[in-house]
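Sample log: Response regulatory domain-containing protein.
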Amino acid sequence: MLNILVLDDAVVIRSLLRLTLTSDDHVVDEAQTVDTAIEFAQSKSYDLILCDFMLDDGETGLDFIKAARTESLNKNTPIVMLSAEDSNAHRDILKTYQVSAWIKKPFTPIGLLRVIYKVLNIDYKESKHALFTEVSKA
């Protein structure tokens, strides 16, 4: 069981992430804004943080990452960035901001779990996720 923080302004994406992660027996805290995510990160240690790149009101996931890397209990927590964008410039962010992985939206539940387990160096048992496997193949 992992403790995971999710930062995404879209309720549909947060719901999909929560469903996928809790179905895999993980505990999920959700934040819609950078400020809320910072509050979570300052009060609780996480095994992983999933963070949207483009947020509402001109905020970006980078605003959160800058704060999390300096002002929280999660300075070294792996962060996986989620985004509809995928370019070389965004890939440079991986190095600059110590982002562990970049997942392009839309993604499948199985694809998400594979990336999470790879980032955390945990063996991934796909057979455990028969429902997601069938949905992903449909």
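Observation: The longest helix spans residues 11-23.
Observation: The chain is about 45% helix and 15% strand.
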